Known about the structure:
It is a single chain. By secondary structure, this protein is mainly alpha-helical. It has 2 domains: 1-50, no CATH class; 57-109 and 119-190, Cytochrome Bc1 Complex, Chain D, domain 2 (Orthogonal Bundle). The protein has helices at residues 5-13, 18-25, 37-48, 57-62, 71-80, 87-90, 148-156, 179-190, 211-219; strands at residues 98-102, 125-127. The chain has a two-stranded antiparallel sheet with strand order 1-2. The radius of gyration is 21 Å and the shape is globular.
Amino acid sequence: MAADPEALIPRLQNHPEYGPRFETAFPAEKPGAAVSLETIARALAAFERTLVFSNSRYDRFVRGDRDALMTPERRGLNLFRSLKTRCFECHQPPTFASPVPGSIGLAPLTAGVDHDPLDSRPQLLEVPSLRNVALTAPYMHDGSLEDLESVIRFYADGGQRTRSQPFLDTRIRPFELDQSEMEDLVAFLGALTDTGPVARRPPRVRESAHANEVEEATASSDVPRPRSSPPR
Length: 232
């Protein structure tokens, strides 16, 4: 995802698999114009929209399997939807996302540019889904937090007011958790990991010089699973 656009576009244009597929999916008037940053983003978005997850242990629990969640995870669920943490206000089931963006205090990725001190408009961020969140470290839009406990502590401290982000969403409020409650909440977030079928990696996605690397990647597990489950 951090590829150099000037190198990525010709690489995809000249790729024996991706080049023709882009031409088919995104017909263009000029040869080679089918591959652009816009069409790459559209292709990625189209794939991501196929990733519909509804078979986590949490899902089985709400469908009636009362044994699907372990005791720490059930305590974490109660914390998640409590007025103590108010996690549910931004991360609403069943998607655990929200259509309403908010300001959490973290500077946008453009924070390096000059900021007008008279500009009082908050920088809003989309509220992402928490499904499979245990698999997607590092966290926040800038990857600044390494683990879920760090994320929870960030919100427990009431977000982060900075010179470039003086305003916080009214839903961001400080709260207190002891270590046991912290572990329970992290355990519940792990229960949002889907256990259903996942998309397999295509057999050829790189140049032939990397064939062995691709074969090894394809043979490996498609999606990592949590290392362990908490005790009941």
